[in-house]
Each structure stands twice: as C-alpha cells, then as structure tokens.
Amino acid sequence: MVGGVCSLEELVGAVAGVRGRLEEVSRAIHVRPELKFAEVYARDVLTGWLVDEGFAVGRRAGGLETAFVAVHRGREPGPCVAVLAEYDALPGIGHGCGHNLIAAGAVAAAVAAVRAVPGHPGTIAVIGTPGEEMGGAGKVRLADAGVFDGVDAAVMFHPADRSVTAQHGLAAAHLRARFTGVSAHAAKSPWEGRSALAAAQLFLNALDSMRQFMPPTARVHGIVSNGGQAPNVVPAVAAVDFYVRDRTTASVRELVERVRRAALGAALATETEAEVSETGPLYAERRNNMVLAARFGAVVRALGLEIGPGDADEPAGSSDIGNLSQLLPVIHPYIQTAAPGTPSHSDAMREASATAFAHDRTEIAATGLARVVLDLVTDPELMAAARAEFTAGREPAGTARTLRP
Ligand SMILES: [Zn+2]
Ligand SMILES: [Zn+2]
Prior knowledge:
It is a single chain. The two termini are 42 Å apart. Strand 3 (80-85), helix 4 (99-116) and strand 4 form a beta-alpha-beta unit. The chain is built from twelve helices and twelve strands. By secondary structure, the chain is α/β, with parallel strands linked by helices. It has helices spanning 8-17, 19-30, 40-52, 99-116, 138-144, 196-210, 249-270, 290-302, 321-325, 347-352, 356-378, 380-392, and strands spanning 56-59, 68-73, 80-85, 123-128, 153-155, 158-160, 171-180, 219-226, 237-246, 273-283, 330-331, 334-336. It comes from Streptomyces inusitatus. One of its GO terms (molecular function) is dipeptidase activity. One of its GO terms (cellular component) is cytoplasm.
C-alpha cells in the first residue's frame, strides 16, 4: 500500500518544493569535502536548513562535535522516526561515496514530511551521523552515547550505480598490526638491528598465504601505514593498517584471531614484537528491515524508477549502519545516481554525485524516505510489522551495541 495521511502526489509536491535547497546544500557540501569528524561546514549547512524549517536542533550529539539531532515534535504522542544523514568524504577523492546526496536528501525528506503533514503525530527527526568512512563508526559512538534511545526506526538511502531496496553489508574489523624491532645502520651494522618492516612484509605475505583457507566470503586487505623513516636505518617500527571482513561478526572474530597469530608468527621469525589492535569499533553485518524496505521500494516504483531487491551474492562493503540495524529497525536502500558500473569510492563517483541526474534521483529517494517516515508515525500497523520483524531475528541481548572482537 502506498498511502497515509497525505497522498503521494502531495508528498511529491512537498519534496519538489525543497528541491532547490536540496541541490544547493548538496553541491555546497560536495565542493567542500571534509574528512571524518571534521565535517563542520556540512553540519552548519544542514542544521541551518533544519532551523529554518522549525526543527529543534541540538548540536554535539553524543559528544561528537559534528553530530547533530534535529527534531520536529508532532501534536500528539507517537513513534520517533529518524532520517540519517552522513556527510563525510574520503581522503584524496572527496565525495566519491556521494554523502553530499545522502545528507541533502535526508534533510529534504524530513522537511518535506513535516511540510506535507504539519500536524503529524510522533516525532520526525534528522540525526547527523558523522564519520562513517575509514572506520569512524560515528553511528556506533552515537548509539553508545544513547542518542538512539527512544528512536523507533531509522531510515536512510545511499547513492550507487544501481537501485536496490536492500543489500547485505559485511561485518568488518578495523585493525593495526604494529611491529617493533631494533634500529641500526642499514649498511655498517644491519646485523645489530631487527627490522620491523621485514616483519610487516612477512605478515602481509602470511595473509596472502592464508587466503585460500579463509571462507570465500571473507575480505582481508590493507596498507603499510608505517614502513620506516629512512632507507639507511633499519626500521625499528612498522605498521600495517588492515580490515578483516566477512558475512557475520562471529566469522570476523574468528578470522581476527587467526591474523593475530600470523602477526605473532611474523614477529617470531624476524625477532621483533607484534601487537594487533583495533583502530575503531567493529562494524556489524547489516539487518535490513524488509517490511520498510518493501514500502520504500513501492514508493520509488510508483515514481517510475525500477528498483530491485538486493542480491545476496553481490559483493558488498561495510557500514556502521550494520551496528544500528542490530538495535532498531533500519533501512539502507540504494538509489542509482551514477551510470551502471561506476565504482564506489572513485573519482568517477565523485563527479557523478554532482550532476542534475544525481539530484533528480535524490529527490526520488527523499520522497521514498519521507513516505516511509510519515507512514511509520501515522500507521501503527506498519510500525508494529516493522518491530515484529526486527524482534523476530534479534541477536541475544548484550551483543548488539558495542561489538568488539
Ligand atoms: Zn557511503
Ligand atoms: Zn563509502
């Protein structure tokens, strides 16, 4: 059913009414990319818009400088539904993940929902969740700080090269293997040194040797983040920053123990010391709420955009939305904003995220999100169905919030 207290036509009109500002805000964020937890400009532009529309805005949500919570309380009690905005960029690439579209689309959805039904029940919120890229885990930090307490459901969309209502996301551990050796002159007396870089090399080779014996769904990848300081000094310190991902948190935890042993083995062979630590919280696998994903899909289809269900075998990344999806009903559909085949995290995706086409599609995404939000606050049956699905597949208590290996 595509229904509710206002017609889809009225909602389309409400979103069209904010299209100008949607594109203006999106482009402003796009040309000024900010890395995780430094998204000061994006925060100001987004909260400024929400203040103009009568939302009560709280900054520094959960103690994070660039997070915010904006709420529009309705005339009677009811559920609290949040639209999530991400707005961080990538080093060297800028908005190659299209978070400018997520952010502007999120605010547009909430503003249009309120404009369409000013007397809505419950609470319509926008939660600004900084630091999604590079293991920032902004949503995990906000959840740990209690920002999502009392939120009944959260919705967002992500730009992509195709449209799907629900896509799985891998669990991911963000790790650093740090090796410590002994420095020495690299030519006069190298035998007095013990190379931490040699340990890092051996460790990376060990990871490659292990690949065949890992589940085919696993992904292990990384960079040498410290390879020493000078060619004529035996490196006393070296580090490899890497991620371990797989379909489930349980599998990731097992793999983390195996790569930890590989680091210790590399250290043993090179007479150095190894320490494997987390550089950020573990991202949990994603649980898409299919009741809400189907509702979003129905609206998008009604607007003339074909959108399929996700493919379980499709390669996937990871997001801190996974952790949130263990706490409350969540959707994270993808809307095609770029030509098919445009890779995520690329220069091409950055360019594609600033086109008129991308903003047309973001307008459709915002309409879909606004519809789901309004239906959730006005239709107790939809809220109950979403809750029932969430509860049915819930992890045992105590595992959901902070997931650490
Ligand atoms: Zn992204
Ligand atoms: Zn990304």
